[in-house]
Amino acid sequence: MFFLLDLLLYFCLIFLLSVFMDNYSGINRVLIKKHHLDIGDVSFYKNFVVVEIKEGLVFNYETAKELLDLGKMYYGSKTPFVYISNRKNSYSFNPLAHDKTTRMFPNLAGYAVVAYNSINEEIAIMEQSFFDKPKNIFENLNNAISWVDELIVVD
Q1: How far is CA 142 from CA 13, 28, 72, 113, in A?
Q2: Angle, CA 32 vertex, CA 27 and CA 38 arms, to 5°
């Protein structure tokens, strides 16, 4: 009987510690605003943005104009942030556009891709050669968000 109570208490403690660590790490994980754009859904946080592009879209500099404008509004050229591409859908993209967009955002601290299948992972690996900032590929969104802590030191 006491063994079961001890075990239950242990698991409760582990759960509470994991919640505490997620909520009190250096990066603010509170959503500032979610936008539903023509290109997809964009969720802005203090130091990262999560972008989910719509299925079948041709994603390029021109179609990303509204996203880029919002990025300037939320982060300007001073607030450090990480761009997280949450690739739930399949779409086409020209990786050469990375150069143009990174020049617009000198405060871009890194680029993460969440790849849910091997095809998206292979595309992300190829894409990395066009990007001169820290970059990483993840299997889930939580790991990508945790990576923000490694890139951005918050006072």
Answers
A1: 21, 13, 25, 12
A2: 120
> What structural domains does the chain harbor?
29-151 (3.30.750)
Q: What are phi and psi of 145, to 5 degrees?
A: -65, -40
pTM of the prediction? 0.80
**With the CA atoms of 50, 106, 26 and 151 taken in that order, what torsion angle do they form, in degrees rounded to the nearest 10?**
90
- Rg (the chain; Cα; Å): 18
What's the CA gap between 141 and 26, in Å, rounded? Answer: 17
pLDDT in tens, the chain (155 residues): 554 445 444 444 444 334 444 443 445 688 999 999 999 999 999 999 999 999 999 888 888 999 999 999 999 999 999 999 999 998 888 777 777 888 899 999 999 999 999 998 998 898 888 888 999 999 999 999 999 999 997 65
Helix (H, G, I), strand (E, B) or coil at 32: coil
- Would you give the distance in Å from CA 40 to the centre of its chain? 14
